[in-house]
User: Fold this.
Amino acid sequence: MSLSHINSAGEANMVDVGDKQVTQRVAKASGSIKMSAATLTAIRDNQLKKGEVLAVARIAGIQGAKRCSDLIPLCHPLALSKVSVEFTELSDTELGVVAECKVSGKTGVEMEALTAVSVAALTVYDMCKAIDKAMVIGPICLLEKQGGKSGDWSRPGSVSESQ
Assistant:
């Protein structure tokens, strides 16, 4: 198996997707932020001076997905048709983040979904760091992808796989 971003001379390059078929492509990624119970309560009760944490983090995650090719040098710029970012309380001390990206295009949206989760989690950290510098972000991973030449994929054991 060869890496798609490495040319025959061993140099990094952008993959030529010009001959690929336009297909509907979807990717879903997840991550989490561990924090103190007091921090999660402050988020839930909208008690932070910087504002409504999850609303700002949702918008930041969407913006992150839209700017993925500006952040990751070999990603193609994509006209995303959908980006969603959702938060779930996983426990009294852990907030889950799930992002889904869709596009009709010649390349997948895995990096956009992963970027959305990362930026959303970083935004939660930024907005809460005044009260909890010990927060931990991660792990962040791809849950599933659909479409494209390589077909569909789901992370073994994920909720997506059983749906």
